[in-house]
Amino acid sequence: MMKLTAADGHEFAGFEAGNLNAPRGLVVLQEIFGVNAHMRRVSERLAGFGYRVICPALFDRAERGVALNYTPEDVQKGLRLRAAIPDVASIEDITAVAASFGERPVGIIGYCWGGTLAWLGAAKTHQFKAAVGWYGGGIAAANALAPNCPVQLHFAEADKSIPMSDVAAIGRAQPQVEIFTYAGAEHGFGCTERPAYKAQDTELAELRSLAFLAQYLR
Questions:
Q1: CB-side neighbour CA atoms (13 Å) of 202
Q2: Which residues contact 137 (CB under 8 A, 6 or more apart)?
Q3: What is the pLDDT of residue 50?
Q4: From CA 206, how far away is CA 2, in angstroms rounded?
Q5: What was the pLDDT predicted at 207?
Q6: What positions carry a catalytic annotation?
Q7: Residue 135: left (phi > 0), alpha (psi -120 to 50), or beta?
Q8: Edge to edge, what strands does the sheet with 178-182 contain?
Q9: In the predicted model, what is the mean pLDDT of the chain?
């Protein structure tokens, strides 16, 4: 874990993976379960494709060292922690992480809550060359924002928390955004520790994400 400091003085941790001298940087944003074992594995896997990766501990603004499991009790704790942190504060943290990569091109990818924050990072900063969001539940409510970089989004067609009507609304508001949906998949299909995990959909979404990031992070 490394230490970072946001513009407002908040100090927070970040899980770091990959070669320090990798030519491209990638900010990986957590679900509502903190920087847990799953997010560390995701970060290490993505780093293997030639990125220096930092996964910031966004919950540090409410409680430090959070690494939750996927139990109902931890879901509720994660939701409480997420509700305690304003989006503007998370954007401060994301901006600080992006700045830490220096002059190299930087992308952003997020899952669940992190998927929404990846969208906000693309729209509310000029730090990123490309942004990818997986099942970000708050994107529909912010679909009028104008992203400052190319964006790719992934949604599960059987997601009980993100109806396909929301996905359609995003598409209408942002016709330039690349959107993929996965038939029969549920929220969190990309997490090996969730019952919703679907290996085939995860592999396809990851391939699409990596190709998209490679296209723009030059």
A1: 16
A2: 112, 113, 115, 116, 161, 162, 187
A3: 96
A4: 26
A5: 98
A6: 112, 159, 187
A7: left
A8: 2-5, 11-17, 51-56, 24-29, 106-111, 130-134, 151-156, 178-182
A9: 97
Q: Name the percent of the chain lying above pLDDT 90.
A: 100
CA dihedral 154, 144, 58, 41 (to 10 degrees): 10
pLDDT digits (tens, 9 = 90+) for 137-185: 999 999 999 999 999 999 999 999 999 999 999 999 999 999 999 999 9
For strand 106-111 and strand 24-29, is the pairing parallel, antiparallel, or unpaired?
parallel
Model pTM? Answer: 0.97
CA proximity to 132, closest of 68, 189, 211: 211
Average pLDDT over residues 36-61: 98
What's the topology of domain 2-216? Rossmann fold (3.40.50)
The SS3 of residue 174 is: coil
Rounded CA-CA distance 164/169 in Å is: 9
Domain coordinates of the chain in residue numbers?
A: 2-216
Could you tell me if 54 and 104 are in contact, meaning their C-beta atoms sit under 8 angstroms apart? no
